[in-house]
Amino acid sequence: MKYKPISFWSIFLGFLLIYSQSFGQENYVKPKLTNNESWSLVLIPDPQTYVKYDRNVGVLNLMTSWIRENVDSLNTQFVLCTGDLVEQNDLLNPDGKAANQNSKQQWTNTSEAFRKLDNHVPYVLATGNHDYGHVSAEYRSTQYDKYFSPEQNGFNAKALREVGPSLNGKSSNVNAIYEFQTPHPKKILVMVLEFAPRNEVIDWAKKTLAQPKYENHDVILLTHTYLDKNSNHIKTEGYKIGDSNYGAAVFEKLVKPSKNIRMVFSGHIGEPDKFDGHLGFRQDKNAAGKTVTQMTFNAQAMGGGWFGNGGDGWLRYLEFLPDGKTVKVKTFSPLFAISPATQNLAYKKEKNQEFEFSLD
């Protein structure tokens, strides 16, 4: 039997593969809390590109399955999503390029992914511009309530406290307030507001938070459009929905006058394969002199741009330490973490991706 000599390059490439896989394994640490008494929330960025192609739906399912599997180890109290739950709200004939799933399929894809969390952890989902109108906020009508209702997740139903003004004369939970008792003594309200909220909604939110029963709560505001990539409040955008308030107006009319809004989370922005184009962060003082931390986190154009895989599975988990002040932010991808060959890519380590801030 003749033996073929093994070339130097074969040996080198084999060594390189083994080394790279070993390196990934040695450096990968499964997400965990830094303090056993901490709690966390998980932030999911705009999922629209995961659900507009059938090939990408599995990534969103992987993300929500990972959240469910780690609820206990991360002591996750609730999950937030920044909106644009679909690419087109009411489109029957996708062109196959911008999307190959029609709107019914897209809404179903998103709903089924989040239903993996039902009766495991509460989740609050914002509505984005793509969740209204025909394709993108041509008018203020959404199918959100058809696919998401508080009673489908017992945890959500238990936490729901307030429902905002009706939408086109119909009851809707696109504007709502949820109450959570975290492991630390402070109670938290999560207030979710529609895309570019109407003046009526802003007024409702302001009056509701001013009620004595909520004056000692810390409030998290969740909405879709708020900061741009330079961390400035967005002043206006060219949508046709009429009565609307973007980031600058929401800050001036609601966030700044409030005495208990402490955090604002949003999504919306992005640039193909440029993570910095998906991010925003700033801190300002509110009427009570308290710091309001405002964070925009998206990833939808990572992993191949607008027609790519939907965002490489990136999400964030925020750890709230027992001192009641320190919050640690980690940016993590269950997609990269699932294989030893890519685990070394599962965390973003840049200073605008892994950091901490303080609540005063």
Automatic annotation (TrEMBL):
Gene3D superfamilies (UniProt xref): 3.60.21.10
Pfam families given in the database record: Metallophos (PF00149)
InterPro entries in the record: Calcineurin-like_PHP, Metallo-depent_PP-like, STPP_CPPED1
UniProt xrefs under SUPFAM superfamilies: Metallo-dependent phosphatases
Calcineurin-like phosphoesterase domain segment(s): 63-269
Protein's name according to its UniProt entry: Metallophosphoesterase
Source organism of the structure: Sphingobacterium daejeonense
